[in-house]
Amino acid sequence: MALLTGQEPANNRRRTYHVHVPDTPPRALVPAIIVFHGGGQDATTIARRWRIDPPNPVPGALADYLLVFPDADRGLGDEWVHLQPGDGHFPTYDLDFVEALLAELTTRLYPTGSAAVPDVSADPDHVYAAGFSNGGGMVWQLMNSDLVSAFRGFAAVGKALDPEKAEEFRKHLAAGNQPPAVPVMYVHGTADRGFRPPFTLEEFPLDTTLPAFTVREMADRNGFVTSVPAATQLVAGSTTE
Question: Can you give the pTM of this predicted structure?
Answer without folding.
Answer: 0.90
